[in-house]
Amino acid sequence: MPRLLILGATGPSGILLIREALRVYDQCIVVVYARSPEKLPEDLSSNNSVIVIKGDLTDREALAQALEGVDAVLSALGPGTFHPPGTPLAKAYEDIVDLMKERNVKRIVLLGTASIKDPKDKFSLTYASLIKGVATLAPRAYADIVAIGEVFRNKGEELDWTIVRVPILTNGDNTEVVAGYTGDGRIGTTLARKGFAAFAVEEVEGRAWVQERPLISSK
């Protein structure tokens, strides 16, 4: 019976992660760590397989409590429309990585974007334009996402991490995805959130992309 910690669980992608985890793993326990757990749909907050822990990403003690006994971490954390200065998400991930090491939790599958570079990426004019647009219009969000990539590049050698890089997210129902790298001629520019959830939950135990940064899009 896996015990999964889900971060960013009250957002649209996070709620889908919870639903997919409960669907795939019949008897799993889902630990939801959220600043505003009241945003969870009632059917999830009242589910006997869901444990809710209220806390902020800056609350190291509450994060440590949420990680107790966990087999893997799934994260849909991402910058909001009005992202604060600094790199708050990257700083939170630094704490999460340290706490995972302390508790011998090895597996984490987290949301990223193409702004996080991978050595296997090739040039893509489409993606170069998208990334430049984000960096220009949302520089704080861009800086935080890039910093998240650096956290795992610099501190993640002992963990089995997978950064699932996503393009433009949609609310479609398509769960089938293509996984690869920027500029490989296979990856599109949109992804249904349900596709992200399906890929991320499958990857927890599928382990096809350990210490990799796949870019995925809808088929």
UniProtKB/TrEMBL annotation:
<dbReference type="InterPro" id="IPR036291">
    <property type="entry name" value="NAD(P)-bd_dom_sf"/>
</dbReference>
<feature type="domain" description="NAD(P)-binding">
    <location>
        <begin position="8"/>
        <end position="204"/>
    </location>
</feature>
<dbReference type="Pfam" id="PF13460">
    <property type="entry name" value="NAD_binding_10"/>
</dbReference>
<dbReference type="InterPro" id="IPR051606">
    <property type="entry name" value="Polyketide_Oxido-like"/>
</dbReference>
<protein>
    <submittedName>
        <fullName>NAD(P)-binding protein</fullName>
    </submittedName>
</protein>
<comment type="similarity">
    <text>Belongs to the avfA family.</text>
</comment>
<dbReference type="InterPro" id="IPR016040">
    <property type="entry name" value="NAD(P)-bd_dom"/>
</dbReference>
<dbReference type="GO" id="GO:0016646">
    <property type="term" value="F:oxidoreductase activity, acting on the CH-NH group of donors, NAD or NADP as acceptor"/>
</dbReference>
